[in-house]
Amino acid sequence: MRAEGFGLELIASDGVARTARMTTPHGVVETPAFMPVATFGAVRGISAAELAEAGAQILLSNTYHLHERPGEQTIEQLGGLHGFTGWTGPWLTDSGGYQVTSLADRARLDEDGVVFTSPLDGRRRSLTPEIAIQIQEALGSDIAMVLDQCIPIEKESDGRTEEKALESAMERTLRWADRSRRVRRRESQAVFAIVQGGVSEALRRRSAEGTAELDFDGHAHGGLGLGESRDERRQAVAVANAALPADRPRYLMGLGRPLDLLDGVAAGIDLFDCVVPTRNGRHGLLFTSEGTLALRNAAFERDEGPIDPSCACPACQRHSRAYLRHLIRGGEALGARLASLHNLTYYLNLLARARRAIETGTLAALHAEIEGLATHRI
Amino acid sequence: MRAEGFGLELIASDGVARTARMTTPHGVVETPAFMPVATFGAVRGISAAELAEAGAQILLSNTYHLHERPGEQTIEQLGGLHGFTGWTGPWLTDSGGYQVTSLADRARLDEDGVVFTSPLDGRRRSLTPEIAIQIQEALGSDIAMVLDQCIPIEKESDGRTEEKALESAMERTLRWADRSRRVRRRESQAVFAIVQGGVSEALRRRSAEGTAELDFDGHAHGGLGLGESRDERRQAVAVANAALPADRPRYLMGLGRPLDLLDGVAAGIDLFDCVVPTRNGRHGLLFTSEGTLALRNAAFERDEGPIDPSCACPACQRHSRAYLRHLIRGGEALGARLASLHNLTYYLNLLARARRAIETGTLAALHAEIEGLATHRI
Question: Residue A323 is nearest to which of B49, B84, B336, comparing CB atoms?
């Protein structure tokens, strides 16, 4: 089964990078695209209107959080994520697996799925590939993710044990993807499978090939951004992308910093999500066209200039670094809000620039520019 | 000395209630008016544009907080509160006295002023009537308040001791007002003196008469909302108002709930401030045209209706009770923001209705309506 009303139309390419139009039941997404993270159905402190104004086209929400509160039945009855939240554009939901294993109490994983204790009510619950699909069908997202098993990269471990554990998790992820495929019922919802295998080229290739055979609507790279080097990550993505069908979206999960995004774009990735822009914003770490700005720095105490003179966000248009620094230091909610919105605007603009660069064959120059900024502190 | 570019032009009255145009160097305020509280130069989580859209005309900021961070010199150098914050309309600042005695460590008060230990850097500082004026002149507010001594109402104390302490604080407040008057230099800044005297009619009258003789730009009622009954409060305000010149603004400090505002309006008050709308909003207690709504209540879990069908704020126009309840329960910043903005909109609309009611001689009907709602829970 493939989803109805969902597809990818390529516009241009530059090397293996490509820009495309991804059609979903709730609107078109120009890719490569960044998806702001709306964990509980809202991006921390920021309204749907502000996100749209900043250039967001699609949001990501966390299935585990919504399952715990308010529960998928409540959201389904209130019109799914689109009716419930006020963001009527496309939604992607994760499977909940990563959150369950990292947030829930006493999560235990076996072939069937994950059994865990809810921190909310202390009850034991289970998350299986089938349940993950059912919850996401109730949430009504445009893109659902399969449940996968992700092994954190253990730098210190014996290499052979690690490879065995990675292989076992990768093979299980394939079996879980197959189970997910068989239970999906919602025709208007795309489902993406997830490539695993750590940074082993052989495992990544085998995972991508096995995943491709299952005929999903799109594919994701999982288990990255967990301590591997930049080269390892780029290699892992490249190997898998070569084995994945080019006519379907590719999503690099949970990454990352601006350079990670450009690395991904250059490798042919279409979708990104990360909490870095909002989390860093709340802490006063701001992305600008001249590098990273640590707003708590005393140097900005009386700085009347905007965060970034080339930015059109409300923070840069209306407020000085001095005022925003004051708000962030005082823990004022308006500071976190304005700084997060600034960083999201930076990310969304960066992807818009990447799309134009691919169309004009100038992606390498943009990539080099961001590489030059990566370690630059204002 | 009286401030230049500051004045009150009466438009209409209904009993002793009046509606007027208060001119300040940064714009006209139609009174009676509610001033949202922007403690650190920002209303929690809400932008200046949203405040203006909701009908705010003037904001209040807390001198003690700004003195501690970022310091009045920084704000002065950055164009005062108007240049620093992005709210370019009128500002009122308090004297810092109430905050120092309630928030600072080891505050000690004598005839000279207050000596306290800053919780920020552990240093001893002092706040005198002269320093309070100097700080506010640096902040550049349109209306500054004199330092006063406020005695909390002690329900349990021996009545005679209390009266003595109240009288002593009231007399000291008069002496401090006189000192404040002598040091003010900023011609474009109005200064308001503060009536004290607890709920003793004799002390309130003496305080108001003594204050009136000092020829300030406006007058405030202090030391209320601290445990006295509604009748005691109304009587205290009425007695003082009768002794204050009618051609200058009257400000009821720190109060309160919607009925407190209507009681004040009916007694001839022109200005109000209170943290109730924003604080209650953050906790999910919402004011509506049908009474108070406790949004955390399970009854609203799947309620698709707006908080208040007759409200035009962004929360009511775009979101359901179910979604806002979900955000508030999850501690999502967007929930606090939208709920606070709703409550502020309610307060600002209530005062707009009061102004129209005074013009049309129908204030008693509005007062009765709000009295009927005061204990009503949806």
Answer: B84
Å between B225 CA and nearest CA of chain A: 26
Q: Which of A45, A78, A302 sits opposite B302 (nearest CB)?
A: A78
Cα B317 to chain centroid, rounded: 28
Residue A273: active-site member: yes
Q: Give dist(CA B197, CA B202) in Å, integer.
A: 8
Q: In this structure, what token pair is assigned to residue B46?
A: 């809400």
Give the Cα-Cα-Cα angle B15, B17, B19 (nearest 5 degrees).
125
How many other CB atoms are there within 10 angstroms of residue B278's CB atom?
24
Question: Angle at CA A43, nearest 5°, toward A37 and A49?
Answer: 120
ipTM of the complex: 0.95
Q: Which of B84, B304, B334 to mutate to test the interface with A (most CBs of A within 10 A)?
A: B334
Look at residue B278 and give its three-state secondary structure. Answer: helix
pLDDT in tens, chain B (378 residues): 899 999 999 999 999 999 999 999 999 999 999 999 999 999 999 999 999 999 999 999 999 999 999 999 999 999 999 999 999 999 999 999 988 888 777 889 999 999 999 888 889 999 999 999 999 999 999 999 999 998 866 655 666 768 899 999 999 999 999 999 999 999 999 999 999 999 999 999 999 999 999 999 999 999 999 889 999 999 999 999 999 999 999 999 999 999 999 999 999 999 999 999 999 999 999 999 999 999 999 999 999 999 999 999 999 999 999 999 999 999 999 999 999 999 999 999 999 999 999 999 999 999 999 999 988 888
* CA–CA distances in Å: residue B226 to residues B10, B150, B255: 31, 10, 10
Helices B333-360 and A333-360 cross at an angle (nearest 10°) of 120
Nearest alpha-carbon partner for B220 in B229, B211, B228: B211
Q: Which of B253, B268, B218, B271 is nearest to B58 (CA)?
A: B271
C-alpha angle A280-A46-B292 in degrees, rounded to nearest 5: 130
Which A residues, 298 through 337, put their C-beta within 8 Å of a C-beta on chain B? Answer: 301-302, 304, 314, 318-320, 322-323, 326-327, 329-330, 332-337
Query: What is the pTM for the complete model shown?
Result: 0.96
Angstroms from A149 CA to nearest CA on chain B: 27
